[in-house]
């Protein structure tokens, strides 16, 4: 064992310091298997102190690292840095405090998203952000990537539900960001930290806001003979002034996959399915449901189902949430994309994706959060066929550029990670990126935390050769 | 997932494994369903991690011995199969891989002897009975024995129940509605002989006549799931011969055995009897599913209300998809209140011979299950598998909180007899 | 004040020029929060009202993009014509506050209760950093996870991280009907208890405010008009049918006037201070506060306080309660800059993360009021 590693062995007992090939191989990828990298070691801290010591070790030896939860990132966000350290936070998975009266939960980063709602359920409360990975993904990972879900339009993303975080900075310092209040004064440091993709440090304690569980849900499943009609239905719902908690569309391929996976009972002949969900106070939901019924009835749906109970609602959602992974049944390989377009451009975007799909000769399944214009095209390919992966990647790239050209974003909720860093310049100018990079270096002078993610061509820091940078003068960064 | 497994050189089993690896998209939905991941929280002890490891070994990138400790820790509970949205046939992968790997393994002489002991004892009721009697005496010396030998002793009951020999034929009561063949199971014949007797009486009560072929052998599941393919094939061949064709179904009242029989199709991949084995597997049913399909003769209501927790055996719920049927049977008894166990999808740690081979993890899971059951406040526990039965009973005992335990069919039997 | 130090850019390039040209500058919008927009010695004031106007607004998108100097009133009027609103309900609109000033001060109003505060609705931002560069963060769509969340960082930044020039917000449809019920309690404890219960209930409020003298909860409902009567009835039942002498129902024009008045935060002499708080700390703070005007907003998460005494005293009081505050304005405005060392009072939460990020955005210390 190299001397640096044996120093790490003084922090961790052998069973929590993984160095054998059989132990490292399973950590080489997250849910984006197109990328693989073998870490130097994996450590499994159990305390904040161990995290601090580990970060200190990384800083001393200039070893880049990535903090990892359940490894469900679809953008390669938790991909190890080759030869770097993986800090697996799965053992820091305690619920530290649940305060139903104040409606907050304090958890460690390895705590699972869905478990927050499960713990809060006896008090009539829940944790709103619901990424499809919620039975698996951890709060730490959700925080780092500002995870979204199906209910973002109305309730926002992870960032809108995190009140505070205790963070170990890449320098080893511990800071408390945010508080227990919904409000703050001074710059929103916590807002900057959430979604920074692990580039600014590791959250070791997270304070989450809980909401009262809606009294009533009204979940409608409408089947259409074209994607366009489903898209128009969404526009009509929005125009009616209703604000549903979720509006989801799945196309024919996605329906087929989801149905094969969970037997949700979806109408199999539909070209598009629309799920609309209202939730809230019973009398209000009942009134809104009547308006929604009118809108849907006029939208050209050939079949409309309303979930009669919690089981039927769960079934409708189960199919939707399993859709990504279920596409594995239709194709040996696929890429999940995550772009955003202005809602009114959805139809245009889908047509263009259809055209690109034909041009590339690759099938594309579409699952999307129609309420907020967040597209998830799934590009089906067979990696065994030479050149298909490259074709699929090229197609994915075209879709992202399309999203930007329509005024949208290259990612709605999966983050930039590995996968999209090359597309950052399509969305941001050199000056924008330079500033973000400056912030990153101010917080992490050696760019150790999740090195190689988010920024295009992001390798070791290269300081400009003409004169000291103001940050150097300020003593925030320095050259070796 | 992309792979470079050379299926040509591995042969038909290679195809089976490559197909499973291909289906995995590494999404991680299996993690919360995996008992070893729940206990250890490490990627290599998760289904997704094991698939990655098996792939690397099969591709020749990783030494088998590097991956083996983590493959060994898999309980084979198949909780991940239920959770998997991509439809990865994980059970087929791990069974086949273990069979492929076993001849390539380097095991210590002690480990070999221990495995041989299990394989030579468990499948043979007579030997097992003799061994169990010896084991009861051995309990006295338990503290002196090596760790590995302590675990099996803990699972033995204080006293073995008398086991009157099973008949070859058990007639239906009243008009005959069906004719079935029953697999008697090995361990349960010794440890809980009443499981079979209760099953026979309940079937008779429902107008089902039962043959119990005397030539039957152990189903071979234990051998199959630990990579002893040759041994499993030999046992399975014996059963293919022993079970008659003139029955409506082949029934099992032990989850593990039933699921073992249903895997014969997979076991015989590349063997001449493959087709016959597939056909055999299709005729196998768990007794609870058979009774629900047949239509249960309604038992009389209980004299006093009884709160029963039903424990899902993994090899019923995950391997065979039998979840609702045992519950339906129990609910058909008037006065019986059925309660669900928290974390019900999680394995109890028994998993065939797992609690013998990985006692530490098995014990953690066993205690977790026992505590979850106690949390329900149930007055009795029902399950459909002898392995779960002994595991849960032993852990309840350790917590000094014994709750009466029954096979699902035992509860029905008692209800028909008006004894509950 | 030296008039030479007042610059009124009408283009973004002029903002850049001004930032580069002056060692110290302070952006100012409508000037409604004097404690935040009164310059210190050596600070050039950038009057941002010249950068005004809505740039993009398609009601179907729920997105509005405008220049930072745009008056809130103008934005709200435009949205109202399409049945929409700024869900974070910024205060001081009627007094001339701008979008930029609202974001920089981080101010939300009573209706933040329903969907969230300004941090929850800001989507994108364009600003001039301390190097004089124009940079952009976020986007113009309702969902976006690309790059660092600079829009959120700018909320509450007080002009110290950059000069805001353009902002994008998520907007929502305004409820088709609203009604407000005021319920008075005999004791503060009873009002607090009711507030807790209401906030944990599935009942949904556009506003859930607490006033202390007398202890009063002000509850605003919104939604479909046909559901409102039954919801009001359920609300009364939930509160245990308080007697008519203790309740007041506001509807129609009267209700709208009431909330417009609340949004002015005009409470006479004294300092106006924003105090983020949490419900469990209210009782303790109330024991120390003198009688006066104040309002706890959003189920006890935000206090707007009128403070008649010296700011040092309030600073000490907040410190003793473990709270922070932001002074928005005082009664003798020219005096503010002399008496007030910093508008940020109470507990000091300065930390390394803040120092490092500030240095990255403003390496030459142009936006810091301190030398």
TrEMBL record, chain A:
Gene Ontology molecular function: FAD binding; oxidoreductase activity
**What EC number(s) does this enzyme carry?**
1.-.-.-
Under the heading Pfam families, the entry gives: FAD-oxidase_C, FAD_binding_4
Instruction: Describe the location of the FAD-binding PCMH-type domain by residue ranges.
Output: 35-213
Q: Does the keyword Cell division apply?
A: no
Provide the cofactor list for this protein.
FAD
Superkingdom of origin: Bacteria
Write out the entry's keywords from A to Z: FAD, Flavoprotein, Oxidoreductase
UniProt-recorded name of the protein: Putative FAD-linked oxidoreductase
TrEMBL record, chain B:
Q: Which reaction does it catalyse?
A: (R)-lactate + A = pyruvate + AH2; glycolate + A = glyoxylate + AH2
The answer to whether keyword Transport applies is yes
What protein is this chain from? Glycolate oxidase iron-sulfur subunit
EC annotation? 1.1.99.14
Q: Which SUPFAM superfamilies match?
A: 4Fe-4S ferredoxins
Cofactor, how bound (note): Binds 2 [4Fe-4S] clusters.
Ranked from the top, the taxonomy reads: Bacteria, Thermotogati, Deinococcota, Deinococci, Thermales
Where would one find coiled-coil regions in this protein? Answer: none
**Which PROSITE patterns is this protein grouped with?**
4FE4S_FER_1, 4FE4S_FER_2
EC top class, in one word?
A: oxidoreductase
Q: Which Pfam families match?
A: CCG, Fer4_8
Cross-referenced Gene3D superfamilies: Alpha-helical ferredoxin
Q: Which residues form the signal peptide?
A: none
The chain positions of domain 4Fe-4S ferredoxin-type read: 14-44, 67-94
Automatic annotation (TrEMBL), chain C:
Q: Does the keyword Protein biosynthesis apply?
A: no
Record GO terms (molecular function):
FAD binding; oxidoreductase activity
Q: Which residues form the FAD-binding PCMH-type domain?
A: 1-174
Q: Which keywords does this chain's UniProt record carry?
A: FAD, Flavoprotein, Oxidoreductase
Q: What is its EC number?
A: 1.-.-.-
Q: Which organism is it from?
A: Calidithermus roseus
In terms of Pfam families, this protein maps to:
FAD_binding_4 (PF01565)
This protein is called Putative FAD-linked oxidoreductase
Q: Which InterPro entries match?
A: FAD-bd_PCMH (IPR016166), FAD-bd_PCMH-like_sf (IPR036318), FAD-bd_PCMH_sub2 (IPR016169), FAD-linked_Oxase-like_C (IPR016164), Oxid_FAD_bind_N (IPR006094)
């Amino acid at each position: 064992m190299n001397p640096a590693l044996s120093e790490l062995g003084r922090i961790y007992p052998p069973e929590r310091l993984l160095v054998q090939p059989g132990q490292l191989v399973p950590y080489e990828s997250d849910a984006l298997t197109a990328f693989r990298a073998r870490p130097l070691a994996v450590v499994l801290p159990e305390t904040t102190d161990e995290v601090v010591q580990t970060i200190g070790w990384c800083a001393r030896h200039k070893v880049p690292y990535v903090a990892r939860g359940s490894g469900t990132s679809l953008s390669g966000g938790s991909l190890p840095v080759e030869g770097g350290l993986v800090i697996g936070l799965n053992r820091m998975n305690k619920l530290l405090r649940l305060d139903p009266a104040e409606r907050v939960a304090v958890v460690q980063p390895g705590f699972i998203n869905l478990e927050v709602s499960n713990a809060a359920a006896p008090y009539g409360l829940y944790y709103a952000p619901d990424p499809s990975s919620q039975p698996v993904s951890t709060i730490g990972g959700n925080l780092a990537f500002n995870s979204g879900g199906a209910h973002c339009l109305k309730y926002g993303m992870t960032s809108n539900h995190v009140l505070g975080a205790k963070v170990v900075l890449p320098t080893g310092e511990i800071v408390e960001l945010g508080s227990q209040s919904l409000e703050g004064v001074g710059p929103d440091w916590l807002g900057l930290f959430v979604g920074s993709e692990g580039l600014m440090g590791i959250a070791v304690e997270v304070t989450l806001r809980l909401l009262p569980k809606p009294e009533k849900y009204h979940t409608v499943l409408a089947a259409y003979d074209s994607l366009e009609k489903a898209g128009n239905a969404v526009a009509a719902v929005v125009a009616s002034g209703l604000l549903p908690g979720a509006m989801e569309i799945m196309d024919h391929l996605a329906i087929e996959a989801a149905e094969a996976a969970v037997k949700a009972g979806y109408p199999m002949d539909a070209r598009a399915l629309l799920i609309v969900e209202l939730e809230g106070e019973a009398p209000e939901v009942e009134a809104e449901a009547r308006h929604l019924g009118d809108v849907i009835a006029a939208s050209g749906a050939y079949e409309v189902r309303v979930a009669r109970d919690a089981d039927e609602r769960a079934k409708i959602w189960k199919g939707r949430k399993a859709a990504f992974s279920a596409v594995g049944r239709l194709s040996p390989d696929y890429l999940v994309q995550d772009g955003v377009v202005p809602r009114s451009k959805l139809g245009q975007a889908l047509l263009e994706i259809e055209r690109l799909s034909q041009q590339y000769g690759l099938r594309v399944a579409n699952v999307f959060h129609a309420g907020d214009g967040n597209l998830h095209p799934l590009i089906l390919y067979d990696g065994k066929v030479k050149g298909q992966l490259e074709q699929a990647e090229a197609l994915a790239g075209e879709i992202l550029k399309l999203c930007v050209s329509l005024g949208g974003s290259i990612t709605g909720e999966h983050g930039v990670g590995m996968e999209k860093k090359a597309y950052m310049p399509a969305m941001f100018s050199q000056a924008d990126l330079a500033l973000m990079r400056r912030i990153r270096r101010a917080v992490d002078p050696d760019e150790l935390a999740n090195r190689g993610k988010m920024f295009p061509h992001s390798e070791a820091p290269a300081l400009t050769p003409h004169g000291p940078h103001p940050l150097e003068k300020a003593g925030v960064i320095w050259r070796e | 997932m992309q792979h470079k497994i050379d299926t040509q050189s591995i042969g038909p089993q290679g195809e089976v494994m490559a197909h499973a690896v291909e289906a995995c998209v590494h999404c991680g939905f299996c993690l919360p369903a995996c008992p070893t991941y729940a206990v250890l929280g490490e990627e290599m002890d998760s289904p997704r991690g094991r698939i990655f490891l098996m792939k690397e070994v099969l591709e020749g990138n990783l030494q088998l011995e590097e991956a083996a400790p983590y493959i060994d820790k898999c309980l084979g509970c198949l909780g991940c199969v239920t959770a998997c949205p991509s439809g990865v046939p994980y059970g087929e992968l791990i069974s086949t891989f273990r069979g492929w790997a076993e001849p390539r393994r380097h095991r210590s002489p002690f480990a070999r002897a221990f495995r041989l002991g299990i394989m030579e004892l468990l499948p043979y009721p007579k030997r097992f009975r003799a061994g169990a009697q010896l084991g009861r005496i051995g309990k006295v010396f338990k503290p002196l024995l090596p760790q590995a030998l302590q675990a099996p002793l803990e699972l033995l009951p204080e006293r073995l129940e008398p086991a009157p020999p099973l008949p070859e034929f058990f007639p239906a009561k009243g008009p005959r509605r069906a004719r079935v063949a029953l697999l008697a199971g090995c361990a349960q014949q010794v440890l809980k002989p009443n499981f079979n007797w209760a099953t026979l009486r309940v079937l008779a009560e429902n107008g089902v006549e039962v043959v119990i072929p005397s030539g039957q052998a152990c189903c071979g599941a234990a051998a199959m799931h630990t990579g002893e393919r040759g041994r499993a094939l030999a046992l399975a061949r014996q059963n293919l011969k022993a079970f008659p064709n003139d029955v409506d179904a082949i029934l099992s009242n032990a989850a593990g055995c039933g699921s073992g029989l249903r895997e014969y199709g997979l076991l015989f991949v590349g063997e001449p009897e493959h087709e016959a084995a597939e056909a055999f597997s299709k005729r196998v049913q768990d007794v609870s599913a058979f009774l629900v399909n047949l239509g249960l003769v309604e038992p009389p209501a209980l004299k006093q209300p009884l709160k029963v927790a039903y424990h899902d055996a993994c090899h019923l719920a995950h391997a065979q998809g039998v979840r609702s049927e045992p519950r339906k049977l129990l609910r058909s008894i008037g006065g019986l209140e059925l309660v669900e166990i928290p974390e019900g999808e999680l394995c109890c740690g028994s998993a065939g011979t797992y609690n013998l081979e990985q006692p530490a993890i098995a014990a953690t899971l066993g205690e977790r299950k026992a505590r979850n059951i106690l949390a329900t406040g149930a007055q009795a526990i029902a399950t459909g598998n002898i392995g779960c039965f002994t595991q849960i009973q032993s852990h309840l005992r350790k917590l000094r909180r014994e709750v009466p335990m029954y096979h699902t069919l035992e509860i029905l039997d008692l209800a028909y007899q008006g004894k509950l | 004040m030296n008039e030479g130090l007042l610059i009124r850019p009408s283009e973004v390039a002029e903002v850049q020029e001004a930032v580069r040209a002056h060692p110290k500058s302070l952006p100012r919008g409508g000037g409604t929060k004097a404690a935040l927009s009164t310059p210190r010695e050596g600070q050039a004031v950038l009057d941002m009202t010249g950068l005004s106007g809505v740039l993009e607004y398609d009601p179907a998108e729920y997105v509005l993009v405008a220049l930072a100097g745009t008056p809130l009133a103008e934005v709200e009027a435009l949205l109202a014509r399409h049945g929409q609103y700024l869900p974070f309900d910024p205060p001081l609109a009627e007094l001339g506050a701008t979008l930029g000033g609202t974001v920089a001060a981080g101010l939300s109003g009573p209706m933040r209760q329903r969907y969230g505060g300004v941090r929850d609705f800001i989507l994108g931002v364009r600003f001039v950093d301390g190097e004089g560069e124009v940079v952009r963060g976020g986007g113009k769509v309702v969902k976006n996870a690309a790059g660092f969340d600079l829009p959120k960082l700018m909320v509450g930044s007080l002009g110290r991280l950059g000069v805001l020039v353009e902002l994008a917000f998520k907007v929502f449809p305004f409820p088709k009907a609203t009604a407000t019920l005021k319920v008075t309690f005999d004791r503060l404890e009873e009002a607090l208890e009711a507030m807790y219960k209401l906030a944990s209930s599935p009942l949904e409020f556009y506003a859930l405010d607490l006033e202390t003298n007398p202890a009063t909860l002000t509850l605003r409902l919104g939604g479909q008009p046909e559901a409102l009567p039954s919801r009001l009835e359920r609300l009364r039942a939930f509160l245990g049918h308080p007697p008519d002498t203790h309740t007041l129902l506001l509807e129609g024009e009267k209700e709208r006037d009431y909330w417009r008045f609340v949004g002015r935060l005009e409470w006479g002499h004294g300092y106006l201070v924003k105090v983020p708080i949490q419900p469990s700390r209210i009782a303790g703070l109330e024991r120390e506060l003198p009688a006066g005007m104040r309002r706890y907003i959003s189920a006890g998460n935000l206090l707007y306080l009128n403070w008649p005494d010296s700011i040092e005293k309030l600073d000490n009081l907040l410190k003793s309660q473990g709270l922070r505050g932001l002074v928005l304005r005082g009664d003798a405005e020219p005096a503010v800059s002399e008496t007030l060392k910093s508008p940020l009072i109470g507990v000091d939460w300065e930390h390394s993360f803040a120092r490092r990020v500030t240095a990255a955005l403003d390496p030459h210390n142009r936006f810091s009021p301190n030398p």
